[in-house]
Amino acid sequence: MTKNILINGNMGYIGPPLTKHLMSSKEDYCLHGFDTGYFAHCLTTKDGLPERQLKAQYFGDIRNYPNQIMDGIDAVVHLAAISNDPIGNAYEQVTAEINIEASVEIARAAKAAGVKRFVFASSCSVYGAGPDKACDEKAPLNPVTAYARSKIAMEEALAELADDDFKVTCLRFATACGWSDRLRLDLVLNDFVASAIATGTITILSDGTPWRPLIHVDDMARAIEWAIQSDADTPFLALNTGSDRWNYQIRDLAHAVADIIPGVDVSINQDAMPDKRTYKVDFSKFSELAQGYTPQVSLEDAIRGLQAGLTAVGFKDAEFRASNLMRLNMLNSHQNSGMLNKELFWV
Ligand SMILES: NC(=O)c1ccc[n+]([C@@H]2O[C@H](COP(=O)([O-])OP(=O)(O)OC[C@H]3O[C@@H](n4cnc5c(N)ncnc54)[C@H](O)[C@@H]3O)[C@@H](O)[C@H]2O)c1
């Protein structure tokens, strides 16, 4: 039977690969999207708008959400958010308004509209500066940024709303990487591949030892599909989402890129102070529950996918960290041109 899925925040980095994945699934999904379009034109594809695959695309701000679009929807996938630490630091109040207040209201309205499943894109950043051992879901939460605090607040609100008729899955994603038709370069592996291609070097500002769990966007899409269709009997789940094999040290990521892209130098700052932002995550519960939907992409394929995609669009910009492929730059640029106000509403 056709399942109607509404994806809030479908026009960002994860939305396009998620759309592609769900449309190629053996299940029959009918997709609807809602987005304010901050990054709508940041396309890194020549294939046209990814949203053409949807049944309907709605434009608007989740702070003024038209609840009626949830009529007849079976599952809501909630991606819409201020989606990283640098933007959360620059727009702390807006982060609380979008990521908590408006998002909680949408979850309440979804439940009232009879939506059966709510899938929330949470983050492993809820663990903050982690202890030495890998954090499982029982590890203490230690958020160190407005972004991470917003994810915890939303999870807590969802835990209260969840019941047998409104099942909630919070996927605590590792750091994303990999090719998307709306690529971002403000993510560690994507940055390394872009830097390797544009400059022939990868410069690591730390000593390279910090641990980071990563997940490919296609594997995020697989996890979201699992959460949409899973018949778990628990009303509420908060799950680390990634793979134990994808806990990497930063220097290993850099060397993996240099092994694949010829002629790349890796420079590591041997004198750097130890970086406190190091953490490993235990993904064993996810691999136990989500059999058939756990991560499949290899690191090598992730790097080759980024290399092929960037090459296909003629990417050569050595100054890419000042470009609109970094989300914070894009939002600042909309403001400087008078299109967005300080609250990130379109003027
Ligand atoms: N990328 C990662 O590493 C990562 C890791 C863990 C979790 N997540 C979470 O996954 C989700 C999607 O991430 P992404 O990388 O695609 O982010 P993104 O910033 O690329 O996309 C977010 C989308 O939400 C939309 N949006 C933001 N505020 C909105 C508002 N007020 N009204 C309507 N639409 C709004 C934006 O226009 C954008 O299209 C986010 O919730 C993010 O926190 C991402």
From TrEMBL:
Record protein name field: Nucleoside-diphosphate-sugar epimerase
Domain of life: Bacteria
The organism's taxonomic lineage, starting at the top: Bacteria, Pseudomonadati, Pseudomonadota, Alphaproteobacteria, Rhodospirillales
Stored CDD domains: SDR_e
Pfam families: Epimerase
Domain NAD-dependent epimerase/dehydratase as annotated: residue spans: 5-231
